[in-house]
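User: Is it possible to get a 3D structure for a protein together with its bound compound? The compound here is zinc ion. I've pasted both below.
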Amino acid sequence: MRDKVLICIQCNNAFVFTVTEQEHFLSMGFDPPRRCPSCRKNKFKESEIRSRKNNKYKKKHFHMKYDENVEE
Ligand SMILES: [Zn+2]
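Assistant: Yes, that's possible. Here is the predicted structure of the complex:
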């Protein structure tokens, strides 16, 4: 067996599916992971964070625009 590079279905980042993990997944009878470790970690928090995340994005976007205007 060799390490495999998989593409995360959520963030489209490549991540390594190591031999150790492959053996673990096989022994548990699981399918190969479709999400990278960080997306898997965030999976639980996702619904909880979603609303806050949107607020954060809006604020960040606003600041970016504001900065642009200042530069001009
Ligand atoms: Zn991901």
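The radius of gyration is 19 Å. Helices lie at 19-28, 37-71.
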